[in-house]
Amino acid sequence: MDFISLIKPMDKIEEEQEVIILGGGPAGLTAGIYAGRNLWKTLIIEKAIVGGNTALTEKIDNYPGFPEGITGEELVKRMEIQAKKFGSKILEADVLNFRIDGIWKIIETSNGIYRAPTLIIATGTRPRKLEVPGEEEFTGKGVSYCAVCDGAFFTGKRVAVIGGGDSAVEEAVYLTRFSEEVILIHRRDTLRAEKITQQKAFSNPKIKFLWSHIVKAIEGDKKVERLILQDLKTNEIKQLPIDGVFIYVGLIPNTEIFKDILNLDKDGFIITNEKMHTSVPGIYAAGDVRGKVLRQIVTAVADGAIAGIEASKFLEDIKYNKEV
Ligand code: NAP
Q1: In this structure, which of 21, 97, 133, 242 has its CB flanked by the most CB atoms within 10 Å?
Q2: Which helix (H) or strand (E) holds 33?
Q3: Domain that holds residue 285
Q4: Which of 324, 301, 299 is closest to 314 using CA atoms?
């Protein structure tokens, strides 16, 4: 396909693509499989680990087809192999800037500038911070957002997990492999995690629950030594001696560079229709980064498939000079 006639002269353009996908998690890799199978020149740009947060998930029990469970690392490795098999290229780079020029979506990265008529945003989310005193100071010194990465540092120790969603409860269970005692601290007195995950936590003798408490501060000398907590029922302030704290209080979408260009919801997630179309023609969003009711790997890959197909249709329409 020849887009050359549509290109305005421009400095520093490194390489034209037909589909650019931002993010190499399950949504991005699946979009790469579907765009690649339609033989479009497809580039997936990933800033850190191919596989995203899924690569850091110890075991996945609810992805259909793997009744015995599968590690996140293996699942995304298979997706990566499949995306490459169908011709998608993967570039490791930070995305620095984004702009639109006519039909072109132009992505400036730490490793060159790329443009394509279609863009699939699958940039996922990052952990929300508690935003309490000591959190930033002790990150990497007892404060962590990744049990799989840091759990082993707390072998034989006592740790706290903050939050009541799937991430907090799953990771609390995971941490019991290493830690003597895991105290799950939640601001309410019921969990929002899946019931089967709750059952695993309730039946694990190493996990204790501290209900209706919030963290006011994280304190220590050179590393975390204690949490300052508030009991929301009595307003009492308490100290809890602890060696480490794992924070799982929700997700923030990685959408900052799109905020002036795309319609986002009040929490910053990209608004799409069921075809993954955003408010700009030729730009799609897939996976956890878009506003949706269920954030799971299985919904991320479904989004990625739809986005890959919709991007293909957009390119076909350009090819045959239909209005897009
Ligand atoms: P989440 O579902 O948004 O849960 C965040 C938890 O943190 C909630 O329990 C919330 O309390 C609590 N929280 C929020 N702000 C807080 C604050 N400032 N102080 C104290 N607690 C606070 O986040 P998540 O667990 O990371 O899950 C994100 C999405 O990924 C969800 O859709 C989840 O289902 C999905 N996920 C799925 C799996 C799986 O299927 N295996 C695994 C991980 C994640 P409240 O309950 O009071 O709001």
Answers
A1: 21
A2: helix 26-37
A3: 3-126+252-319
A4: 324
Dist. CA 8–CA 10, nearest whole Å: 6
Q: What is the pLDDT of residues 71-96, one digit of tens each?
A: 999 999 999 999 999 999 999 999 99
CB atoms within 10 A of CB 314: 22
pLDDT in tens, 180-223: 999 999 999 999 999 999 999 999 999 999 999 999 999 999 99
- 295, 297, 299, best to mutate for ligand 1 pocket (most atoms within 8 Å of CB): 295
- The reply to whether 241 and 264 lie within a common domain is no
d(CA 122, CA 290): 8
Q: Whose CA is nearest to atom 15 of ligand 1?
A: 249
Closest protein CA for atom 16 of ligand 1: 249
Query: How far does the centroid of ligand 1 lie from the alpha carbon of residue 80, in Å?
Result: 27
Cβ atoms within 10 A of the Cβ of 11, count?
A: 5
Q: Which of 57, 135, 166 to mutate to test the pocket of ligand 1 (most atoms within 8 A of CB)?
A: 166
pTM: 0.88
- Which percentage of the chain shows pLDDT scores above 70? 95
Q: From ligand 1's centre to the CA of 279, what distance in Å?
A: 28
Tens digit of pLDDT for each residue in 55-68? 988 889 899 999 99
Last residue of one domain, picked from the residues 212, 247, 282: 247
Residue 204 belongs to a domain with what CATH number?
A: 3.50.50.60
Between vectors from CA 226 to CA 139 and to CA 217, what angle results, nearest 5°? 65
- Residue 61 CA: which ligand 1 atom is closest? 41
Same domain, 155 and 198: yes
Rounded Cα distance between 272 and 282, Å, is 12
Q: What is the pLDDT of residue 8?
A: 46
250 lines ligand 1 (CB under 6 A): yes
